[in-house]
Amino acid sequence: MIDFQNKVLTAQLKHADAMIEKHKINVEVLTKNSSGVADHPDMMQTVEDELNKIGHWEEIKSVIRKHFDFEGKKSLLNE
């Protein structure tokens, strides 16, 4: 049971990190690449939406850190 919990929570943390990176890249593309602006007429709202998505995944990581103890947790959270 512990091994399963470790695998699930480890995978969830890695998934959250990947999603955070994805949305960070989206913000960078939107703010540094003028061709991205044409597809998004409300640029401020689009960037805000991406930031909210980052916040969502940060919250997932925070809940895992606060409420669960599992093997490998410390090494994953320090990456």
Which terms summarize this structure?
79 residues; mainly alpha; 4 helices; 0% strand
Draw up the topology in text.
Blueprint: H1 2-32, H2 34-38, H3 43-67, H4 73-77
Helix pairs in contact: 1-3
Quick rundown:
The chain has helices at residues 2-32, 34-38, 43-67, 73-77. By secondary structure, the protein is an all-alpha fold.
Describe this structure in words.
By secondary structure, this protein is mainly alpha-helical. The chain has helices at 2-32, 34-38, 43-67, 73-77. Helix 1 (2-32) packs antiparallel against helix 3 (43-67). The mean pLDDT is 86.
Distance between the termini: 25 Å
Main beta sheet strand tally, sense and closure: none
Helix and strand content put the structural class at mainly alpha
Overall shape: it is elongated
Question: What amount of the residues lies in strands?
Answer: under 5%
N-to-C SSE string, H for helix and E for strand? HHHH
Average pLDDT works out at: 86
Tell me the number of helical segments per DSSP (H or I, 4 or more residues long): 4
Indicate the percent of residues in helices: over 70%
